[in-house]
Amino acid sequence: MKLASYIHKGERSYGIPTADGMIDLRAHLGQQFADLKALLANNGLLLARELAQLQPTLSFDELTFLPVIEHPEKILCVGMNYAEKRKEFDQHNPAPTLFVRFADSQTGHDAPIVKPLHSSEFDYEGELAVIIGKAGEHIARADALSHVAGYSCYMDGSARDWQHSWFTAGKNWPQTGAFGPWMTTSDEIPDPQSLGIRTWLNGVMVQQDNTSSMIHDVAELIEYISTFTRLSPGDVIITGSPGGVGKKRNPPLFMHHGDQIEVEIDKIGHLSNVIVDAAQLHSAVA
């Protein structure tokens, strides 16, 4: 089953995307669960599955997609987690590299990604996102995947010229991280370490790998992270980007106004966004 968050006629909602449109779950479950995060936190997946055979009532062209989880308590990002990426950046530290993203730095599928006003090195990073469904701390690796509600695509945009001594400043400009278009529930992905992942910039493939190339797999990351912080339903772990990023190309390849960036992951979906320069966005609003 797939689950998405969106706006319809000015109202935030969530539902099940199908080949023929969206089954609007909020119309049926909204009194119990205000949003997708609440549905996960209150064991609503079984109720959602009971409605998965309904006929869709909304077409995609009347929806504005939101980040799959619009307001996670935590967005924990993993850096340098693919072998080729580590080679590009000459990284050798064996421990997971972690940093945070803030919820207000996200945007949804088919929405503008905003190139920061003060960055001339806005880079792409296609990644697998893990959405937590069951709370826990000190989670054993053998039990870790049972805490996962599902998986999604993420475009973890990076202002490289703001990653001075660490990553946080380069990762938290508004609307620089695209999350979607939806999540695929974990029952459809029993092994998250066997998924092809691809990124295109203006129709040219710039990243291609498989999640089997992760240095620290999803279960290990959940075990490690839950050692120092309690994971809650709706929390998101972004698991790292393959090699091929623009910063390490010769010449470097960065994103600019009007560019299209796409991330596709097997069994999950295809995330697509257009880059909008912050200066032009601000002048249009003014």
Could you explain the architecture of this structure?
Strands 1, 2, 3, 4, 5, 6, 7, 10, 11, 13 and 16 form an eleven-stranded mixed β-sheet that branches. This protein has a five-stranded mixed β-sheet with strand order 8-18-17-14-15. Strands 9-12 form a two-stranded antiparallel sheet. The chain is built from seven helices and 18 strands. The longest helix has 11 residues, at 218-228. The termini are far apart. With 286 residues, the protein is of the alpha+beta class. 16% of the residues lie in helices and 34% in strands. The relative contact order is 0.20.
Give short descriptive properties of this protein:
eleven-stranded mixed β-sheet; five-stranded mixed β-sheet; globular
